[in-house]
Amino acid sequence: MPSDSSNPAPTTGSANVGYADLSGHLARLDQAGLLYTIHEPVNKDTELHPLVRWQFRGGIPEHKRKAFLFKHVVDSAGRRYEGDVVVGALAATPEIYRIGMNAPSLQDIGPLWEKAIANPIPPVEVDTAQAPCQEVIIEGQALQGAGNGLEALPIPISTPGFDAAPYLTAACVITKDPDTGIQNMGTYRGQLKSPTRLGMMMLANLRAGGLEHWKKYKAMNQRMPVAIVIGMPPVVNFQGPQKLPLDVDEMSVAGGLAGCPIRIVKAHGVDLWVPAESEVVIEGFVETAFLEPEGPFGESHGYVALEDYNTSVEVTAITRRRHPTIMSIISQVTPSESSVIKKLAYEPLYLSHLKNVLGIRGIQKVILHEALTNLRKVVFLQFARGTAKTEVWRGLTGAMTLQAAIGKFVIAVDDDIDPNNIDAVLWAMAYRCDPAQDTQVIRHRDLGHGPRSEHTPASDSAMLIDATMKYPMPPLALPKREFMEQAKRLWEKIGLPELSPESPWHGYDLGDWEPEWDKTAELATQGRWMEKLEDYVQRRDTQAKPNVPVSRKPTS
Length: 556
Hints:
This protein is an alpha/beta fold. The protein contains 14 helices and 27 strands. The chain folds into three domains: 11-328, Roll (Pnp Oxidase, Chain A), CATH 2.30.110.10; 358-466, UbiD C-terminal domain-like; 481-538, no CATH class.
């Protein structure tokens, strides 16, 4: 790590650890009732990921998902592995993510990220004797041969039937800028190829720090040192999927999240710093002289990434705890664990970008659509009712400026529309949007994260949609709130099935409504509707046409 102000050198000494390592995090999840512990044998090649996948595709509500800790991991050859495997421990649900962040509430997650980015805390160096990640060191001949090295780690197959091999999915890949010395942590998939060989999908990551570092080493005709870390403390692990500027040291941002320095140690055989409390560290060098075929692998955009040329890592050492826990994540078709991680981290950054950086007035929420679309392609912007059209369109165009690959369909809605309810969004598009006036197509957009093949075009486009109200509208045709709440109490008294209210669940005024009609409706609920007859008789009009609204303009 460099000694400049952007990335201060670690302070030597002990740290006041205010964050949980993986085992401490799992204990917190267990205490909260958010951890299944499986003691029976589970095949990592055919059963492990499909078992956890069912809680994302089996109709189980999000709040009932849990992490899975597998204590007896085997493979298709019947081999028993030393160490455990955990899936879902980072973000099977937002509540699990919150516990990992040590955030008081879900609403505090965004402010915690903003504070940590603005107020990083440099890490603190500890001696190797204080680093659990180096309790066992495997190198040289001990890495070689069947069943050794990478093959000794219980790495699951994520998409049995399609994936080419077991894959690292939750590892943070640490590399260093050879010019500045600033480290970067990114989450890239890693294909096991042999006890000492690993394929890594680093080249397709847009603006990834590891890729930028790789280009510099390639220009220098040198291999790139790398440390692939599995099972970091969650506050550190969350840095990998987060999109921060390339000159930001994520270890210091992790310290900002923890409120204290992250304990780090010098890697055993490469010139990099790694979190001392990690479970496993795979050290080696990324080849820059050639690329190798890598894949297929089921990717987070929901399609299988086909075999492609990518980087290759020569493993020189593996350091680990005596009994390590391998962390793996559920990715592929969303919702998934990886999409929960990104959603909770990205949305606050997008809202801050629009509100604080671009100064968009009226913006209230940014929601990245998760199910199947994987966050990047469909973006909803929620505005306060009555926000000027110019601000709405500044928000729509501004939403595409934070990341080049996010925002294929960007849709603005009013604050009475729940962006998480796609039916409500379609309702707004159906009645509050004139496609001829309220849509705009932007050409020459980056393809971003998605399925690639020989037929994939070179660029994409985006559509911006203003589905906010342009004029007052009649009320929503549901009973007013007080009547729905009264009926809910009756529902519960009778003992009918538990309700899960969907927005909108009561009627409300949208601007085109007269106080006189409130009086009429009140008479109706009192059973006095017949008292309006004389009023209707007095307002007869021989010139009126059927199905034409009654004029509310004062007569001359």
